[in-house]
Amino acid sequence: MNEDLKFGRRGFLLSVAAFAAGALGLGGRSWAAGDAGLPAGKKAVSETDTMAAALRYKHDASKSEGKGKSQTCANCNFYTKDNEGWGKCTLLQTGLVASKGWCASWVKKA
Ligand code: SF4
Question: What is d(CA 1, CA 70) in angstroms, rounded to the nearest whole number?
């Protein structure tokens, strides 16, 4: 086999592996930062979970389509506070949602 071709394939595979590792590493760093203040042993809902994505959920309401501070999970009827930064959502149950989060199903707390 042509040595250039072998190197090319190896280089391509290493590039793909490096890209994947970088992407995972980047996702892990941003994910870890997004988890700050989570109660011990609990995880946050991923913004990319199927249901969360469908509802356009964001941990930071200011980066969402919502109305920023006036509409956050903390003042949503579906939210139950766990600690200052996180709580349970009746609709998104794969983890905790951020008190400063928002999704398209926001309803003013009764
Ligand atoms: Fe937050 Fe309410 Fe949406 Fe649940 S339904 S993610 S508590 S805004």
Answer: 65
Least confident of 34-43, 53-62, 67-76, 99-108: 34-43
> pLDDT tens-digit profile of 60-104?
999 998 888 899 999 999 999 999 999 999 999 999 999 999 999
Integer Cα distance of 107 and 39 in angstroms: 25
Measured CA to CA in angstroms, residue 73 lies from 10, 13, 64, 89 at distances of 48, 43, 12, 8
Best probe residue, ligand 1, of 56, 69, 73, 80 (max atoms within 8 Å of C-beta): 73
**Atom from ligand 1 closest to the CA of residue 72:** 8
Ligand 1 binding pocket includes 97 (Cβ within 6 Å): yes
Give me the pLDDT at residue 34, please. Answer: 60
Greatest distance between any 2 Cα atoms in the chain: 71
